[in-house]
Design brief:
about 525 residues, six-stranded mixed beta sheet, five-stranded mixed beta sheet, 19 helices, about 45% helix
Length: about 525
């Protein structure tokens, strides 16, 4: 074990330049290039295996949406796999007028449904029949999953995407001799997306929301938690969107979102693997370089007003009890981010953390506990969030009281040196894990560049952690972990009740639907 830690430490020191002066540091090995249209490219050559990991990240997410149009960032991510004018279609010239007809009919359908009690069911039925008829004409022109199939046929081991409040990311891992294939396909889909099957996909997203939020107790708790913690800031909106917004999104909404936020100056590309920097720069310039879009006016993000008192809510579900406790923390200053990261790790990371030792092992108040300091994002001031699952017969309030005792201890007693050493070693191992794989390194580079404006954040982060003092941790805890700054959400367990009005003799115990 000691040998393993020693070897890991040497590896980290060598890569960050603190061990051998003749070894190129990570900072020296990462090649940066900014194209004239604003695209930022990061390349790290690693010739260990004939593979490459590519991460494209746009600095746009649900935080950029406006009320009434939530869910657009996530919806766009879905549509990026539907193809372009040349990909995913057998004849785009024939398909285009059909897509316009479908869009127009759906807009009429949405307008009719929005009338509520005045909705004309006959008109709805007629419009649905027309929609199905035009969709039936368009279907034979669509090549389903052509992008997926192309990549898979050429040896891609990963093709994925993800949307958060802060960013949208597109992931490709493939053999390094297929790098030009990626440049051809992905430059086409970011420059020429076609929103075919938009309304079918809108239904898919609504079903996804029902599964993840409406019928998922912890999903519902989390959504309510953020919308309570944030009064004005758009972090309060769910990334998947509010249900009533999703059902009224249109192709025109998505096109407007695309024009505003999918611009070259919002894009960072990280390429890590068996490539040369010159090769990557030439390919990106060839396929992405002519992409010219006028920058959209900067969005004015509503600022969150200071919290002045406890915010508390409860929801009831036929599920195990759960609680979320959150505190607004500053996120723009790098030293402060590092300090709150340290607090989260000390309190709730792993089985040796303070909360786990007290709440789970010693007092057996909870079956699980976790702490994060970057919830729900890091482009703007986040929350330090504590999640816990009370263990029967203890209540959520029992857990809350125990959590506050530990928070008060953190504010009043200096952190011990062994805890800081464990924290520093953990960061070193985390950095090593990121450096070990192409995908881990690409993901780290593109995230730090996109969110913080500099991929070197990970190197400064390590240095700041090693210089962190108990006094800095105490000061941060006293500043932010206060009852006036607290948001508390509790999921109470409520068993399903039976309607016995029709069957007076039916008891809860005897009805399997009520168990």
């Amino acid at each position: 074990m000691i040998r393993r830690i020693f070897v890991c430490t040497l590896a980290v020191l060598a890569l960050t330049g603190a061990y051998a002066s003749d070894t190129p540091t990570l900072e020296q090995r990462v090649i940066e290039h900014t194209f004239s249209n604003g695209i930022k490219l990061l390349v790290l050559e690693r010739h260990f295996s004939p593979t490459v990991s590519i991460r494209m990240m746009f600095r746009t997410g649900s935080v950029d949406e406006v009320s009434g149009k939530t869910g657009l960032a996530h919806m766009f991510e879905h549509m990026m796999f539907k193809g372009t004018k040349t990909l995913g279609t057998r004849d785009y010239a024939k398909e285009l007028p059909l897509l316009k007809q479908i869009d127009g009919l759906h807009q009429q359908l949405d307008q009719e449904k929005s009338k509520g009690a005045l909705t004309d069911p006959n008109r709805v039925s007629t419009l649905l029949e027309k929609v199905r008829a035009v969709e039936a004409q368009a279907a034979p022109l669509v090549v389903e999953n052509e992008l997926w199939n192309l990549y898979e046929r050429e040896g891609a081991s990963e093709l994925n995407a993800g949307t958060s409040r802060d960013f949208t990311q597109y992931v490709v891992d493939l053999p390094s001799n297929k790098l030009e294939l990626w440049a051809i396909l992905d430059s086409d889909r970011v420059r020429n997306p076609v929103f075919r099957q938009f309304y079918q996909e809108r239904d898919v997203v609504q079903e996804e929301r029902r599964m993840r939020v409406e019928t998922a107790p912890e999903g519902k708790l989390y959504e309510e938690f953020l919308s309570t913690a944030y009064t004005a800031h758009p972090y309060r909106h769910p990334t998947i969107g509010w249900d009533s917004d999703i059902s009224h999104l249109t192709v025109a909404d998505l096109e407007d979102f695309y024009r505003r936020y999918y611009t070259p100056d919002h894009l960072t590309i990280a390429v890590v693997g068996d490539v040369t920097a010159d090769q990557v720069i030439r390919l990106v310039d060839r396929y992405f370089g002519s992409w010219r879009v006028p920058p959209a006016p900067a969005s004015n993000i509503t600022q969150e007003p200071p919290q002045t008192g406890l915010k508390e809510f409860k929801i009831r579900f036929d599920a195990q009890p759960h609680l979320l406790m959150g505190f607004h923390i500053p996120g723009t200053s790098e030293p402060e981010r590092v300090t709150y990261y340290a607090i989260a790790q000390l309190l709730g990371s792993g089985t040796s953390s303070r909360f786990y030792k007290i709440l789970v092992e010693k007092k057996k108040l909870a079956s699980a506990v976790d702490v994060s300091e970057d919830d729900p994002g890091e482009r703007y001031d986040p929350l330090l969030t504590i999640a816990a699952a009370p263990r029967h017969p203890h209540t959520a309030q029992d857990v809350v009281e125990a959590i506050w005792k530990e928070l008060d201890r953190l504010k009043n007693e200096p952190v011990q040196e062994w805890e800081l050493e464990k924290l520093r070693a953990g960061v070193d191992v985390m950095l090593l894990n990121a450096l070990q794989t192409n995908d881990g390194m690409a993901g780290t580079l593109v995230y730090d560049q996109t969110i913080f404006g500099d991929w070197r954040t990970l190197l400064r982060f390590q240095k700041l952690i090693h210089g962190l003092t108990p006094q800095a941790i105490q000061a941060a805890a006293k500043k932010s972990l206060t009852r006036e700054n607290e948001t508390l959400g509790i999921l109470e367990s409520v068993k399903k009740q039976c309607d016995t009005s029709r069957h007076p003799r039916r008891s809860l115990a005897g009805d399997p639907s009520c168990r």
